[in-house]
Amino acid sequence: MDQSAVSVDVVALRFWTADTAVGFGIAARGHEPFTGRLALPGVLLGRGERLADAAARAVSAKLGVPRAALGPVGQLVTFDEPHRDPRGPTLSIVMWAVTGPHEGPAQWVSFDEPPALPFDHNSIVATARGLLAGLLWKDLPLTRALLGARFPATRAVDLAASLVGARPDAANLNRTLAGIPGLVKTGERLRTRATGRPAAVWAFRDP
C-alpha cells in the first residue's frame, strides 16, 4: 500500500511591540503547484526529523525568519483530506510558531482579512485561529512569547481580540490575567492611548 506524504505547515505568528493585532506569515511559492501564489510556509517532514525542527526549517526557508528570531513552536492539528494536495495524498501537520522582530521578505496578514491561499490553507488558518484562541492564557510559552515579559493590559486586549475575533470584557480579562501562574500586576501604569486612563502593567516572574 502506498503511503501518504507528510508535510508540516506552519502558522507563524507576529505580534511585535508596535503591532496592534496578531499577524500570520505567508510568502510566494517558488515551485509548482501554485507557483507565485502566497501560501503558508511548509515542508515535507524529513526521515527522522522532529516536528518542531521541520517547523523551524519551514519558517526559516520560506519566510526568511532567522533562527535567532524564532520563539516557541507547538502542534495544533492534522489535516488529512486525501485530495488536499494535487500532487497526491499528503497529510498536513499544522504547527504554530512565534516570531520576534527581524527583517525579511514575508508578508504578515491579519486573521480577519486573509487573502485567498492555495491548497486548504484558508481552512488551516481559520481552524488555527480558533485553536490558538483556546490556547491563549493556558499555554504559557505561547502567551508569554506573544506578550513579552512585561506588557500593558491594553496589549493583552489587542492580543485576545486578534485571536478570538472580539474585544474581551475588561473585568473578565483582568481575572484571567490574575489567574495565570507567574504573572503579577506590577502596580505601574503606562499610557498607551491618546485618551483614557493609563493601562495597568503586568509582568511574568522569572522562572
UniProtKB/TrEMBL annotation:
Gene3D superfamilies: Nucleoside Triphosphate Pyrophosphohydrolase. Keywords: Hydrolase. InterPro entries: NUDIX_hydrolase-like_dom_sf. The keyword Hydrolase applies. GO terms for molecular function: hydrolase activity. It comes from the Bacteria. This is NUDIX hydrolase.
